Amino acid sequence: MSLRLYNTLTRTEEDFRPLDPSGKRVTLYCCGPTVYNLAHIGNFRTFVFEDLLRRHMESRGHEVRHVMNITDVEDKIIRSIHESGEDLRSFTGRFEAAFLEDLDALGCLRPTVTPRATEHIAEIIAMIQKLEKNGVAYKAADGSVYFSIEKFPSYGRLSRLDRTQLKPGARVSQDEHSKEAYGDFALWKAWSERDGKVVWDSPWGRGRPGWHIECSCMSTRHLGETIDLHCGGEDLVFPHHEDEIAQSEAATGKPFVRCWLHSAHLLVDGRKMSKSEGNFFTLRDLLAKGFTGRELRYALVSVHYRLPLNFTLENLEAARQTLRRLDAWAERLREKAGGATADASKPGSLAAAFSGALDADLNISDALGNLFEALRESNRRMDGNELGAKDAAELWRDWKAVERVLGLPASDPAGAPPEIAALAEERKAARQAKNWKRSDELRDTIHAKGWSVKDSPEGYKLTKL
RNA sequence: GGCGGGUUAGCCAAGUGGUAAGGCAGGGCUCUGCAAAAGCCCCAUCAUCGGUUCGACUCCGAUACCCGCCUCCA
Predict the structure, then answer these.
(1) β-strand A459-464 against A63-68: which pairing, if any?
(2) Which of A137, A285, A340, A465 has its CA 20 to 30 A from that of A223?
């Protein structure tokens, strides 16, 4: 069975075949963050989807070269440092570091390369020169260089917008009035006072790169002129990705991307996230509420990427419960398996069913459905003492494979501090002496200190609240 | 106005021309000093109205409502 992915370019699900003749290596470019503030959970919805895609491809034996750009020069960044007077690099460095930390907390694999726009200025200039040479770019009176969409007849193919119908709306940027045509976009922006020290020399004078050119450049530089997959949020289809295609293909004469994947947006309580609505969350906001990155990841990954995800704290709570059940099952399996070893060479039915479901354009719901069916079935067998150690070991091996693709970071098994452990031991003694009153008091004390204690036939178990 | 997506149980969400996966919540039971945890079981006829069909939630048409993009945005 082959992997099928929904290609925005054709608006159909297609068999995925890497450009690499061996079919093994895959080139994946993901539009990364603009580092001017903390990324929010909507941003991470997309990054988690991309991580799932990568992990699934890797589990199928692909070697994925994953590039995610860091946009570290852009209008909002410039505005921020203009106000604070902070140095560009130190400002963006802070948010870049926070972004990578958040990726880790969410269990996302670090991309193979995370190139910065400011470190590719030479390549950007070279690409613009090539576009100029090819007659699709022009320098305007304001000193900026623009791409002429009229010279690129297939402009609008990805977003299915008719380039001749593009009309000025309310959001026309005031500083782009020198363009020849409304749909033209900036490749190089001439320096203006507001840019302050954020400036580079170029054949067209001092200035800075436009928004879209960095991705074209970094994609080409790190992955080649034609790549397999390019991902981003659905709002990037137009204009960002449309413009990337125009630039790249006009520069190289080759197809830029073979398959485009776009994730739908995340809503909070059914509405777009916004700070004024009070429904704006960063990962750190949720951590402060006591949730874990693992719980958020599950909530984000468990909804199909092309469906709007309505995030609520209730969903996050549901994710927590689901994970508890999964963890308890995994622990039960592991104990049941004991020292038995599974045949590592062939996947079991759970691993195959899970992977097969993901092959259908990452049908995560189907995949999770398969997982929970296996869970219930095996629990039933363990209840009836009908599951042998060998079977348990095989299921355990499958679960590990599934867990790896889901990218659920291992839950923190940090032991209880000595004080709590001592109280728990004291309670155990009280219970053995059938001193229930003392036992219950100790449970309350432990609870008040932020831990819960649960009894089972095998003894007690401490968990952090 | 143009283009696109959606409407399945309290919430989230698969799926298919032959009679509805799964998760959370809820209910029942088991276990248990109590509790918690855990386990098992139960819990829908698929927005509305027409049509095609032996048969539609699944195909066609219409209606209603929701959402996204149309140069800030993952």
Answers:
(1) unpaired
(2) A137
